Amino acid sequence: MKEVPSITFRFLQEGKKMNEDYAIKDTVKDSVKDSEKEDIIDALKNDGENPVNSKPFSFYFNLSIKYFILSAIAITLFFPFILAFFGTFKSNAEITLWPPKILPSKWLWENWLITWKTDLGRGGTFPRWLFNTAFLSIIIATLQVVFCSLAGYAFARLRFRGKEIIFTFMISSMMLPGVVTLVPKYVMMAKLKLINTYWSLILPGAVEAFGIFLLTQYFKSIPHELEEACMIDGASYFRIYRTVVLPLSRPALLTLYILKFQAMWNNFLDPLLYLNRVNMWTLTVALMTFQQQYKAQWNLTLVGAMFNAIPVLVIFFFFSRYYIEGVSYSGLKT
């Protein structure tokens, strides 16, 4: 094989080096001062030769302090829940000890079984209360996502007479305390003969001003060009809403779903007013009666509280990323 002359070889090497230098210089923005460009270019050149990130010791020290403070705050805030969870496996005497011990000396697993088999008669059992709470929370959260997204898309994209007035009136309704509408809602549900039915909670909770406002603000952040391209292809408003807007709004939709699921799961006043039968109670109402019945047995009371707290924590744990993303977008973009 014929060897390449040394002069040609050096020429090729110099040309390769010049191309690399030009590529590096193109990565530096024009806004950087000339005195700083050379330093940046040298750093980019030496990046492959010196892979070790040479940051000062103070950077790592400050970062360690921040993580230590955040970890201490997290443990402090979460410690009562940890103590309550391990308290479900303790005896009453061990729960009231001071100073408290985190782990039980003897694990009483039967506390969970005793609580689960609680029966107050007339269908008042823990599985029934858990079903009522989960059913109402899922239905109301789903209806909120459907109807609030439809109304939010109309306020964000459609043009119709009186839109601003209706939107302002809707937002102003959020300033009214919830107790103001308790009596009118109860009278309405009684006239419709919906007391002691699921509909007494589903119908008033199907749509709220907060959900419409949240999704309206998020829909406004979606570029108009995507919808205009669909309109050119002949898509209707509903098809654009279904195929373009909803897939892009998944963080906001999941945020609203989690908020409304949690709100219904922890709702106490509305189920107490509208659901009077034992077999129609939700967990929050049942726990009040359960605490009165087992007021001397703190371990069983803590087990009942865990039945109410754990499902919401599990849902938030799996969807926390979408929740944070949805809140940040809807809160910052208008």
Describe this structure in words.
By secondary structure, the chain is an all-alpha fold. The chain has three domains: 6-45; 63-113, no CATH class; 114-332, MetI-like fold, CATH 1.10.3720.10. The protein has helices at residues 6-27, 34-45, 57-87, 92-95, 110-116, 126-157, 163-172, 182-191, 199-202, 209-219, 224-232, 237-248, 250-265, 269-274, 283-293, 298-332. Helix 5 (110-116) crosses helix 16, helix 10 (209-219) crosses helix 16 and helix 15 packs antiparallel against helix 16 (298-332). Mean pLDDT is 79; it is low at 1-9, 28-33, 48-52 and 330-334.
Name its key features.
single chain, 334 residues, mainly alpha, flat, disordered N terminus
Quick synopsis:
The chain has 334 residues and is mostly helical.
Layout of strands and helices, then pairs:
Layout: H1 6-27, H2 34-45, H3 57-87, H4 92-95, H5 110-116, H6 126-157, H7 163-172, H8 182-191, H9 199-202, H10 209-219, H11 224-232, H12 237-248, H13 250-265, H14 269-274, H15 283-293, H16 298-332
Spans of at least 5 consecutive residues with low confidence: 1-9, 28-33, 48-52, 330-334
CATH topology of the largest domain: MetI-like fold
Assembly type of the shown chains? Answer: single chain
First CA to last CA: what distance? 69 Å
The tally of domains stands at 3
Annotated CATH architecture of the largest domain: Orthogonal Bundle
What percentage of residues falls in helices of 4 or more residues?
55-70%
In DSSP terms (H or I, runs of 4 or more residues), the helix count works out at: 16
